[in-house]
Amino acid sequence: MQDLRIKTEMPLGVIRQLRPSDLPKFREHLLRLDVESCRDRFNGPSNEAFVAAYADRAFRAGTTVIGYVEGDEVLGAAELHEIEGEGEPTGEIAFSVEAVLQHRGIGSRLFQRLIWHAHALGYTQLRVTTHPQNQAMKKLASRFNARLRFEGGETVGLIELEPATEIFAPQVMPQPRRLAA
Ligand SMILES: CC(C)(COP(=O)(O)OP(=O)(O)OC[C@H]1O[C@@H](n2cnc3c(N)ncnc32)[C@H](O)[C@@H]1OP(=O)(O)O)[C@@H](O)C(=O)NCCC(=O)NCCS
Question: Which residue, by CA, sits nearest to atom 17 of ligand 1?
């Protein structure tokens, strides 16, 4: 059942890559999307069976999925799927933030993290596809310098990335925790 309470506080969750064991939480997130968000996410009407099968497939196919996680719930996600057969390493990206949390900057944080992962994986271009009326996605894409063009009823955004170099290594490397004496 969809939670219709309006969240007014700042989002306190974390943005992190989802682990294989997060699949059920990712699936639940996609299934909780309201009708409009679901249509925008999948570029058309979809049903529960389709969305559930999609989530399973995404994890099996080695897609990178970044989540916005609060407690043990995934409430937003950004996906990076490889598009094979292109001249250069190309990814298709997609986003979903649950309605009660939209407009709070979570989509932008997910986008930023996804670009970091895409870069680290050596992708040099990313595509995002949506319908021409999806203002939120169009704004989000233009914020990250995506060139948007209109193609056969769909809006396709293209983001070009610099090839990966050592300069983009993480600034702070996590250190293993010391074992207690
Ligand atoms: C697209 C989506 C991921 C954006 O997430 P979000 O958390 O609301 O994004 P942010 O809060 O970071 O906002 C990003 C920009 O979009 C704008 N925006 C957000 N929702 C909007 C809306 N409903 N209408 C118009 N603009 C909107 C914000 O004002 C912001 O613009 P700015 O940079 O000029 O301030 C979210 O709306 C969503 O999940 N939509 C349904 C699924 C979808 O459309 N996915 C994209 C296609 S794969």
Answer: 136
